[in-house]
Structures
1.
Amino acid sequence: MSSFVVHNIPGSPFGRAVLATLEEKGASYRVARVAPGALKSETHLALHPFGRVPVLEHDGFRLYETQAILRYLDRILPAPALTPTDPRAAARMDQAMGVSDWYLFQGAGHVIGFQRVVGPKLLGLPTDEAAIAEAMPRAKTVFDELARLLGAQSYFAGEAPSLADLTLAPQIDFFVGLPEWEPLMGPHRNLQEWHERMLARPSLQATTWEKVSARTQAA
Ligand SMILES: N[C@@H](CCC(=O)N[C@@H](CS)C(=O)NCC(=O)O)C(=O)O
């Protein structure tokens, strides 16, 4: 039996970052499906008092907050290392993870992803186009800044993938196929190439919404 259990909703970009990190490390794990309607249930609040996913359980140790989970995994499963040793490269990794949480998710993904995908697909809600239009200028600032931070590097912290790439790729991938993809990603060839590079990784291929869903149902 796997010693890693990830409580997750298939499709969650935060959950995918955790699963992709476990995949990168070659660790075996089990996904415990959380129904979207159960996030605020007493059972789930006992695991995550803020009623969100993911939650990691590892040999009696329980942890929520994706950045904390990723760093924990990188410390206890050291190979391959997903944090650069160079302090400035590590600082860029931390910065990109902060941008992902605070500006990409909060300012853009949370609104656009919810209005275009989560609301209609999971909750049967109509899309609020005005909310999307209001979020677009913030989203554009985020994508422009991510492209600037990436620059000519292959990955956000240099020439090897790091926790920053595993954090950002699931969030960016959520925009694929949406009408907002072209206006946000179109001007940034470097970001498009990085996204393709990340999606080609077995860790991202193994953790698509469909694959996690199928795997979770089978568990
Ligand atoms: N800060 C949290 C954010 C996690 C998060 O927002 N997860 C979303 C799913 S992608 C969620 O559980 N949303 C439920 C809600 O907002 O009620 C983390 O880093 O893990």
2.
Amino acid sequence: MKQSEASNPFLFGTVALDEAFTDREREIAELSSDMRNGQDVVVFAPRRFGKSSLIWAAAQSVRKNGVLVAPVDLMATPTKERLASALAASVYENIASPLERVWEKAAAPFRRLRVQPAMTLDPDTGSLAFTFSTTREPADVDATIEQLLKLPAELGEERGLRTVLVFDEFQEVVELDPHLPKLMRAIFQRQPQVGHVYLGSKRHVMDRIFNDENEPFWRSAKPIELGLIDPEHFSPFIAERLKATGRAPDQAAIARLLALTRGHPHATQELAYFLWEQTPAGEAASVERLEAALGAVLRAEHSHFTLLWEEASTVQRLVLEALAKEPGRPLTQAYRDRHGLPSAASVQTALRALAQREVVAGERGDYRIVEPFLAEWLGRR
Ligand SMILES: Nc1ncnc2c1ncn2[C@@H]1O[C@H](COP(=O)(O)OP(=O)(O)OP(=O)(O)O)[C@@H](O)[C@H]1O
Ligand SMILES: [Mg+2]
């Protein structure tokens, strides 16, 4: 390919695969090992930290060992019928179909479901779409979901193969039906040979599901905390991708980029994407071009930040402005005096609300803005 024709090698907003994926070696090794062992795992991470990309990479790795992994994204299943459809499609594609070459045979277990789905075969891809009608008794839908959740264990056992069910955006289960966790847990408890992986953002909801002793999933899975990507790993990745597409990397620009994003996966790829756009073929991705790229990112994120700002209370706004200037200890008298903040009690309330929305984060009273680029946006208003 001619260098001038190379397309932008950075990507944000979708699952990062293959060349777009970097680092996470330790996490992939740990998750893969857990999946091979049938150990249940819960992965906690704020939004856009790379949960889906990580599980994709780990699933690819264990499939090489014959483990059958069926992922379901609960964000894409707003009703229980849709959950049943997604479960059926994934279990068919990732478990039934690899075990049984003839599609009628692979589809046979789905004909025994309480609610009969409409099945449409795509002759080109071989994938089977399932549709459950919504006119049924709720109890029938629950029974069907129950049957589907039991299928991986039954199918895997026949062949002595390990199966794993992966639930992305698992916190949505509560929205679907508050009774669903109890039903699921009752089934999963009786299938120790099946691995279960739960991924979730919305920390307070995930915490309630897994860390409250009155909840069915209490301590049922090994927790893994997904962090930022170490800038030490991100830096050579960015340089390499720039070089591969005919742009000269500039260490100072990459250092500034990573100082702005601190290795936040999505934010890093977003800013790198705009940096690449600013850099003509054959030229250097310089510090000046990085500043222009940051301006472009802030313009692209403007409506998102405006909405966030409009939804914030007065005290929350004051706290955000203060933290944008000075990350630190907003509950101390000295900090509040410096930034004209109200009482510690109301600052605390504001911090709690902002932390719940994952706009700020803090440990032992020490807070900072974690929403990428928000501090820069506030600084430029
Ligand atoms: N390992 C990685 N290497 C490079 N970039 C990554 C990696 N993981 C994530 N990213 C970047 O972060 C973005 C978000 O990743 P992903 O969708 O996997 O995160 P997520 O935590 O599942 O997000 P969401 O909360 O939106 O579901 C990707 O589009 C990509 O730009
Ligand atoms: Mg995701």
